[in-house]
Amino acid sequence: MGCFECCIKCLGGVPYASLVATILCFSGVALFCGCGHVALTGTMTILENHFSRITADHAMLTDIVQLMQYVIYGIASFFFLYGIILLAEGFYTTSAVKELHSEFKTTVCGRCISGMFVFLTYILGIAWLGVFGFSAVPVFLFYNMWSTCAAMRSPVANLTSIDSICVDVRQYGIIPWNATPGKACGSTLGDICNTNEFYLSYHLYIVACAGAGATVIALLIYMMATTYNFAVLKFKSREDCCTKF
């Protein structure tokens, strides 16, 4: 067998579905965790400087944001390991690898591990759908504020007094109703929209939401790949039982 034929045969053993899902998963999780972490920090800066100047009013929110940032670290570490494990599982259970190694045999332990990956991937897929929906909430809040500022700057708005236009973040439940000042109106609101923190946080939340969506797609691909691998293992085990008799 020539070198070219050997390379083609080796490339045939690559689980391309799992490989694409791994790359997409790593990219999505990296975008979600990195951008989300920085955006949360920028959001707290905006709240402390413009909406809740008394530390006691947003103390609980500060603790929640810090907890979420620690959770982000855990998510990044977990999915880095889980993606590598699923990619390795794809290499060892793909049908092309079985054709390369004719002595490949399935075991009960191997089938149980493959079934566990199927179940765990489905659970993670459902969980990340919730994460994707949750990550769209800050995008919606920032978009409301940005659109309000854009309406004030519009020459066709025909506004008599921009001071009557306000954004009250207390109505979203982010800070308590007794927070001071709790809202921004007119030129103050316009100044907030022109800050680097607002511009950066808004776009980072959009990227983080896109990263969560990419992770959901990656997990869907993982679902299909792991389900197929498990079905092949079941078929191989039945084939082995039939050949024994």
Task: Report the total helices.
Answer: 7
* Largest sheet report: 2 strands, antiparallel
Which of globular, elongated, flat, extended, rod-shaped describes the shape?
Answer: elongated
Widest beta sheet: strand line-up: 1-2
Are there runs of 5+ residues with pLDDT below 50, and where?
Answer: none
Mean model confidence by pLDDT: 80
| SS content category | mainly alpha
Radius of gyration: 26 Å
Helical proportion?
over 70%
- Helix and strand string, N-terminal first? HHHHHEEHH
Strand content: under 5%
Cα separation of the termini = 35 Å
Number of strands: 2
Structure description:
There is one protein chain. The chain is mainly alpha-helical. The protein has helices spanning 3-11, 16-51, 59-93, 95-100, 108-153, 186-193, 196-244; strands at 166-168, 183-185. Strands 1-2 form a two-stranded antiparallel ribbon. The longest helix has 49 residues, at 196-244. The radius of gyration is 26 Å and the shape is elongated. The mean pLDDT is 80. The chain crosses the membrane at residues 19-40, 70-92, 113-143, 204-228.
Would you summarize the structure shown here?
With 245 residues, the protein is mainly α.
Question: What topology emerges from the helices and strands here?
Answer:
Blueprint: H1 3-11, H2 16-51, H3 59-93, H4 95-100, H5 108-153, E1 166-168, E2 183-185, H6 186-193, H7 196-244
Antiparallel strand pairs: 1-2
